[in-house]
Write a structure and sequence with these properties.
33% of the residues lie in helices and 25% in strands. The protein is α+β, with helices and mostly antiparallel strands. The chain has a single domain, classed as Phosphatase 2c, domain 1, CATH 3.60.40.10. The protein has a 5-stranded antiparallel sheet. Strands 2-3-4-5-8 form a 5-stranded antiparallel sheet. Helix 1 (42-61) runs antiparallel to helix 2.
Length: 278
């Protein structure tokens, strides 16, 4: 399958500095969006350090499973090597941002969210920390496949708030996990098969703060998704006040000649069972 990727960022209408960062691998194998925070320019520093650390570590080691593979803490055999690698990259980024925060008084307390997707074979590995999101559009439906780390979402998971109440709660803006603030970090990991026609949208919360999921779906289904889709989304967010920086990355999966959904399913199952791949 072929995966095409595009990205875009904008400062918005109410911020003077863009503290977001993003990364798109030249081969389309890794995509990241990050939202920095922590005072004057410190958020920009945090998101940049995290982006560089995650992308470099993953890029350097993603093809070295057989030889030269790095040490991965708490390796989870239920996930692929690439998902474990992505997790370790985020752990490393947390250490790097935290160290820089402690080194300089004007960077103290800075941090960053991250949402990332790494494509390998017929599989995508997904990671997020904080409230930057990953959406999947498949068969005309949209699904958030990341998990928000906010106090509102924590209360939903404890049964204190309903999902509807959480969307209106002020606690939806309070992060419960972020890169670079504490030595302990919670992240959400997942991996799933990809199929021709799949669309993945990664975004910082500048988008979903003003658009709900169904509105986002409407924009993604207007014509063929591509760079103009991202420009249109940013224009719409800014037309609604542009309260925050907005960063978007789009991944579109298309079918190569001879490939099929059955092939993708077979490959994904074989990999999950540990069977050798051709």
């Amino acid at each position: 399958m072929i995966v095409r990727t595009w990205s875009a960022t904008d400062v918005g209408r109410q911020r003077s500095i863009n503290e977001d960062s993003y990364y798109v691998d030249p081969d389309g194998e890794l995509v990241l969006v990050l939202d920095g925070m922590g005072g004057h320019k410190a958020g920009e520093v945090a998101s940049q350090i995290a982006m560089e650390t995650i992308s470099r570590f993953y890029r350097d080691h993603s093809r070295n499973q057989e030889s030269g593979a790095p040490e991965i803490e708490n390796y989870d055999p239920t996930f692929t090597y690439q998902t474990n690698l992505l997790r370790q990259a985020v752990v490393n980024a947390n250490k790097m941002v935290l160290a820089e925060s402690r080194r300089r008084d004007d960077h103290l307390g800075m941090g960053s969210t991250v949402a990332g997707a790494a494509v390998h074979g017929y599989t995508v590995s997904v990671v997020n920390v904080g409230d930057s999101r990953v959406y999947l559009v498949r068969d005309g439906c949209i699904e958030q496949i990341s998990r928000d780390h906010t106090l509102a979402q924590d209360q939903v998971e404890r049964g204190i708030l309903s999902a509807e109440e959480a969307r209106e709660s002020q606690l939806r803006h309070v992060l419960s996990s972020v890169i670079g603030v504490d030595e302990r970090i919670r992240m959400h990991l997942d991996e799933l098969p990809i199929f021709p026609g799949d669309i993945f949208l990664l975004c910082t919360d500048g988008l979903n703060a003003v658009m709900d999921d169904q509105e986002i779906l409407v924009w993604l289904r207007r014509g063929n998704p591509g760079p103009e889709t991202l420009a249109q989304l940013i224009d719409e967010v800014n037309a609604r006040g542009g309260p925050d920086n907005i960063t978007l990355a789009l991944m579109v999966v298309s079918e190569e000649s001879g490939e099929s959904r059955d092939s993708a399913i077979t490959s994904f199952i074989s990999k999950a069972m540990g069977e050798p791949q051709d």
